Amino acid sequence: MTAYLIGDLDIFDMPTIEDYRAKALPLVEKFGGRALALESSPLELENWKSGSMVLLEFPNRKAIEDLFASEEYAPLAAQRQSAAASKLIAINALD
């Protein structure tokens, strides 16, 4: 079942995040994922003050778990965490 990773990032070091994205997106693809949306100024509709938002699609939730558990991603996670306060969730699609 398709799964989505949704991220809400409060970025305080944009150059580091840009470097992170350049490295992380190819790794996302290696784990079967793809970026669907990246928005630095999302439209806030009801009771959600958000930062920069990202939406990634994966073939299933296990692919997301495998990415986050990989040795390759560990230093990138640390890089992201050093440059932004992140809220990340994974959800299943309706299919």
How many helices? The count is 3
Please summarize the sheet with the most strands: 4 strands, antiparallel
CATH topology: Alpha-Beta Plaits
Q: Briefly, what CATH class? A: Alpha Beta
Number of domains: 1
CATH architecture: 2-Layer Sandwich
The residue fraction in helices comes out at 25-40%
Q: What's the number of extended β-strand segments?
A: 4
Strand order of the largest sheet: 2-3-1-4
Domain DUF1330: 2-92
Pfam family, one: DUF1330
InterPro entries: Dimeric_a/b-barrel, DUF1330
Protein name: DUF1330 domain-containing protein
Which key terms come to mind for this protein?
95 residues; alpha+beta; Alpha-Beta Plaits; four-stranded antiparallel β-sheet; 3 helices; 33% strand; globular
What's the quick description here?
This protein is an alpha+beta fold. The chain is 38% helix and 33% strand. The protein has one domain (3-42, 50-90): Alpha-Beta Plaits.
Task: Give a structural overview.
With 95 residues, this protein is an alpha+beta fold. It has one domain (3-42, 50-90): Alpha-Beta Plaits, CATH 3.30.70.100. Helix content is 38%, strand content 33%. It has a four-stranded antiparallel sheet with strand order 2-3-1-4. The longest helix has 17 residues, at 14-30. The protein is globular, with a radius of gyration of 13 Å. The relative contact order is 0.35. The mean pLDDT is 96.
